[in-house]
Amino acid sequence: DEVYVGMEAPKEEGWVQDNDVLDTWFSSALWPFSTLGWPEKTSDMKRYFPTDALVTGYDIIPFWVNRMTFQSLELTKKRPFKDCIIHGLIRDKEGRKFSKSLGNGIDPMDMIEKYGSDSLRYYLTTDVALGTDLRFDEVKISSTWNYINKIWNAARFVLMNIENLETVQLEDLKIEDKWILTKYEKIIKSITKHMDKYEFNIASMELYNFVWEDFCSNYIELTKTSLESNTTKSVLFKILTGILKMLHPFMPFVTEEIYSMLPIKDNKTIMLSSFPKYEKDLIYEEEMSSVDEVLKDIVSIRNLKANNKITKEALIKIIINKEEFIPIYKQQLKIADDKIISEAKENLTATSYKSKYIEITYYKEVEEIDTKAIEEEIKKLTQSITRRKNLLSNENYINKAPANIVEQDRIKLKEEEEKLKNLKSQI
């Protein structure tokens, strides 16, 4: 417990005790309106009071929030804020409060020096739900630094390829353009909903998945054969700009820096630019679903090649039943024209994959089969498949786990089942 010791009056003459003293929380509670000119009806009072939101920890609700509320209602007849955002406390990994005696405190300036202020800010604002205590973990700040580095590298690639862009033209869109634009519009709608509810952890998680997977890992790779197209440049610009604006509340410095390099800007600073707005005219549900299937195929075929040690020397028999997907499959799977054959090859081992849009068979020379190793792998896969099936049949998991995690489990299950089928066929 803290003990407050009163100050003794000076012995010299001429000192008078202040007769107008408030408890610190009472004076703090006057802040929303006393700073705006109250009791005069000033323009600032009219514009800024009540405030939009009060942000506070749960530990001072009775000391500050309650006193602010009753004083405001008594003196101004208005509540002092529209929303009250209550966050948790920062603790160490074991859940203990930071204390000098335990020596478990963390100096934020040390973290900023090591990882940058954006990394620390992003971690503190997005790691847990509002009202939940955060257990400080430096590893997570390091992961955020990697995320920022990913954004920076993606931005460098985009900026390098759109430096001559003068106008945004979303005409003659390819199917992959429609795919990313649909994903982008959906993420704007979802992010806006979660931000309005102050669900920063959910908003940041969804945006992270979009930035890392959809934009960086997939769309940027898909554009590498069409970077001369003004449409491709326009889509890259539009998506990057929107990502920067949605990330800006969490990462103000790196987003401002990248925004300043854009060839087209709607304001001199990102802080004054408009937040992305949902455009339903850029939603292409059918094309999005089709490309999602193609990307799943690509992941499955890559796994098939890795599991069966298929090299670039393998001959390939391939049928793609939708013309606009041909360049995507060939580019992503690195299929060389001189390796494509029209007829099946005898005296070679064949490894096949078939889906809605593609039938592909790889042919390579017969290798001596290590039956024992394959049987061991089958055993491990069978156990993993059983565990994953049990997980996906658990309604509690399906309803409470993030949708993207559940979907990843479903995809992984399908890949494991396909791998198991191929392994069994080798014995």
For the structure shown, list the relevant keywords:
427 residues, mainly alpha, two-stranded parallel ribbon, 53% helix, elongated, disordered N terminus
Largest sheet: 3 strands, antiparallel
What is the straight-line distance between the termini? 72 Å
Q: Which structural class best describes the helix and strand composition?
A: mainly alpha
Multimeric status of the protein? single chain
Helix content: 40-55%
Over all CA atoms, what is the radius of gyration?
A: 29 Å
- Find the count of extended strands (DSSP E, 2+ residues): 7
* Helix count, DSSP H or I runs of 4 or more residues: 16
Q: Outline the low-pLDDT stretches.
A: 1-5
User: What string gives the helices and strands in order?
Assistant: HHHEHEEHHEHHHHHHEHEEHHH
**Percent in strands:** 5-15%
Rounded mean pLDDT score: 91
Strand order of the largest sheet: 5-7-6
Shape: elongated
Gist?
The chain is mainly alpha-helical and 427 residues long. The protein has helices at residues 24-29, 31-34, 43-48, 61-76, 108-115, 117-126, 138-162, 175-196, 200-222, 230-247, 252-259, 285-307, 326-332, 371-392, 395-400, 403-425; strands at 51-57, 81-87, 90-91, 134-135, 315-320, 349-354, 358-364.
